[in-house]
Amino acid sequence: GKTTQLKMLRDYLLGKGYEVILTREPGGTPLAEKIRNLLLDPASGEICPVAEALLYAASRAQHVAEVILPSLQQGKIVLCDRFVDSSIVYQGLGRGIEPQAIIDINHFATQGITPDLTILLDLTPEQGMARLAKRNKEKSQELDRLEQESLEFYHKVRQGYLDLAKTSPERYKVIEADDSIENIQQRIVALIDKYFTI
Ligand code: TMP
User: 81 falls in which pLDDT band (50, 70, 90)?
Assistant: First the structure.
């Protein structure tokens, strides 16, 4: 659901006259999309946790240098579907790498930039898996390498995000995502409107 929500938010902000770019991770540039394919292809097999963390960081470094920093310098709003927090949670808590190591390599990869606002769309892993199954059936798609992980892995990931959100309630806003597209978008827009009036 986050891709749909981000597209709606982009259109909302464009309608308000802002310059906006919508991008995603892993991906967002031709090289980073190639790294994405390597990371998500089940045929890549077992990728050792450190290599996985470095591949995500490498795709991010390219994305920051080629897209995010230039856009920010041009005064645009950058909406990014996932960023460093996904690495802290998936590669750190999910794969068991020391979170500080993930923070350090990503500090290097991002040249130190951090988001102003992070919206976390929260679902239980059971709800998330049910949605994936539905989407894949509709699109005749297979689960990717990460989506094949266990429910236990996704419980760790969810808890990791919720714990991160608690460390900085100013930056993270958690939205209950077991709802209609319209209701979720309304909550996101309310947050964004509030953000821009402060
Ligand atoms: P997506 O399915 O939301 O496009 O994200 C691709 C997958 O990559 C998703 O399973 C989460 C995972 N991921 C990480 O493990 N670490 C990261 O740093 C990022 C950005 C995504």
Answer: very high
User: Which pLDDT belongs to residue 198?
Assistant: 60
Q: Report the residue among 52, 60, 82, 83 best suited for mutation to probe ligand 1: largest number of ligand atoms under 8 A from its CB.
A: 82
Please give the full DSSP string across the chain, using - where no structure is assigned. -HHHHHHHHHHHHHHTT--EEEEESS-SSHHHHHHHHHHH-GGG----HHHHHHHHHHHHHHHIIIIIHHHHHTT-EEEEES-HHHIIIIIIIITT--HHHHHHHHHHHHTT---S-EEEEE--HHHHHHHHHHHHHHTT----TTTTS-HHHHHHHHHHHHHHHHH-TTTEEEEE-SS-HHHHHHHHHHHHHHHHH-
Residue-wise pLDDT for 186-198, tens only, equals 999 999 999 988 6
Smallest CA separation from ligand 1 atom 9, residue: 146
Q: Which of 86, 118, 135, 158, when mutated, tests ligand 1's pocket best, judged by the most ligand atoms within 8 Å of its CB?
A: 86
Provide the mean pLDDT of the chain: 96
Judge whether 127 and 112 are in contact, CB under 8 Å: no
Has this prediction a pTM greater than 0.85?
yes
